[in-house]
Specification:
Elements lengths: L1 H4 L2 H5 L11 H5 L3 H19 L6 H26 L7 H18 L4 H25 L4 H20 L11 H8 L1 E2 L2 E2 H19 L1 H11 L1 H6 L4 H27 L11 H11 L11 H20 L5 H22 L9
Antiparallel strand pairs: 1-2
Length: about 350
Amino acid sequence: MTTTSVPSPAVKEPSEDPGSSRPRLLSRVSGQNISLVGALILVLVLFGILNDNYLSLSNMQVIAEAATITGLLAIVQTVVIICGGLDISVGSQTGVASVVSAMVFTSTNTNAFLGMAAAIGVGLLIGVLNGLIIVYGRVNPTIATLAGLAAYKGLAQLLSDGRAQGYVLNDDFFIFLGRGKIAGLPVMVWILIVVAVLVHLLLRYTDIGRNIYAIGGNDTAARLAGININKYLICVYALIGIVAAVAGILLTARTGSGQPTSGSEGLELKAITAAALGGAALKGGKGGIGGTLLAVALLGALENGLTVQGINSFWQNVAQGALLVIAVVIQQRRSGERPVGLPS
């Protein structure tokens, strides 16, 4: 009796309006997502008024390309948060993959596919290592990946001697990845769309996705229901490693060389902020890819707007930190939990 009925609430947790008779698409675009759409429109209108070129097609393309790498990491960050975990090392993982892709490319007579395969292989190994440390080392995910943030950053710097490595813009495939277009959209944006669709389908329409929500919603109930939590956690962190490696490859293609820190530093904060703004509950069990992508678009539009207005880039970090705090405050208010340190 317990094993068949207990996990149901955890599995249904992701639905924003499970009892509604509205069409599914409309039920997805509600609550927090509507707020994000409103905020995005406000940012676009505001900076469009301040700068005539802000809403130009070319600048929208710049925003989309710049947001792609953050978007990829935010998508997998959403998955791990839904599962009840966190990965603070995604930026450093991206840096390692970027360096490996460029160095292998240059050391194998400019073979782009070997460079990319090596980067993805390293990303997979890092992801599995994170999962093993968390599961079998019984280390809190925040602590384990905080250690990874420092360790993988150091590894990228050791491999590259702290400098950009290789030059990939003499290869047609890297040029295609970094600067090519399909049907008018940059290839990088298409890659983001494909990953987003695949992960959305995985979460919403497969038993794997339902189990991920169940683990984050109530890991005890999930365990009683027979879900192998350890296996799922390791696989989720492996997925993060693979997607972070793809982000590293795109970073290499976009900048023309392997970047140990430049372009990847700070990505973990952006990814977590986007996931939290998009509705992923930091305690697990709730979230979706649609909201995360809206938050990524909002962060990208805001960052670009501050840049074109010539505002000191340090204020971008202030804005990201403020948005993350706002997202968590909203989550806490909606959950109805007692504020820390205050009487109930």
